[in-house]
From TrEMBL:
Segments traversing the membrane: none
Domain (Peptidase C51): residue spans on this chain: 74-204
Identification of the protein by name: CHAP domain protein
Listed SUPFAM superfamilies: Cysteine proteinases (SSF54001)
InterPro entries: CHAP_dom, Papain-like_cys_pep_sf
Pfam families for the chain: CHAP
Length: 206
């Protein structure tokens, strides 16, 4: 199979050489083919390794969600590297279903460790011994300060960075986000633009 770096060219090649459909047959609408190829390229971008093999268990989203809004499904254009099942999640010092409980355990699914005593959501960014910056990285914890991004005025909030796009926008997953109205132990997703993402503090696990 040929390899292409341009989604439109790849779609045309597939149509001619693998589906046996000539581009001049009057059935193929090139404008729609180009639009669709670019759309699906963005959806699956980053989920396939450069050698053409699967990037693992990456799951791409398909739900159109405005930045900042709560979603129960993965938003379109973003993906997560592993399914969220909560199997084997432990409490340690974090109460079941809280945002801290979720991030502590979600990170462990990727072999990333955070201290069992990181504190409340906003305290994670101030825990000694951890690298903290305003630059988002995949599989880091994002520590919201106070009411930032809808966090609790006293305790703040913490979430897990599932995806970081080339444009700087991010996808987070989280539990017990009060404004979502979903309740304890319920996972949801939110997307933030690059400008929004720069305002947050990201904590790198060990």
């Amino acid at each position: 199979m040929q390899k292409a770096t341009d989604p439109f060219e790849s779609a045309k090649y597939w149509s001619e050489h693998y589906e046996g459909v000539l581009l001049s047959d009057g059935q193929t609408k090139l404008e729609k083919l180009e639009k669709d190829s670019k759309k699906w390229y963005e959806v699956f971008k980053g989920t396939i390794e450069s050698d053409g093999s699967s990037g693992g268990n990456a799951i791409a989203g398909s739900l159109d969600v405005p930045a900042g809004e709560v979603a129960r499904e993965i938003p379109s254009g973003y993906s997560i590297d592993k399914e969220i099942t909560k199997d084997g999640y432990i409490t340690q010092s974090y109460p079941y279903g809280e945002c801290t409980w979720y991030v502590f355990n979600r990170a462990k699914e990727f072999g990333i460790n955070f201290d069992p005593y990181m504190g409340n959501g906003q305290d994670w960014a101030h825990k000694s011994g951890y690298e903290v910056s305003n630059t988002p990285t995949k599989h880091s914890a994002v520590s919201f300060q106070g009411r930032q991004a809808g966090g609790h005025p006293t305790y703040g909030h913490v979430a897990f960075v599932e995806d970081v796009k080339d444009d700087g926008s991010i996808l987070i997953s989280e539990c017990n986000f009060v404004q979502s109205g979903q309740g304890t132990g319920i996972t949801n997703y939110r997307v933030f633009t690059a400008d929004q993402a720069k305002e947050f503090l990201y904590v790198t696990g060990k």
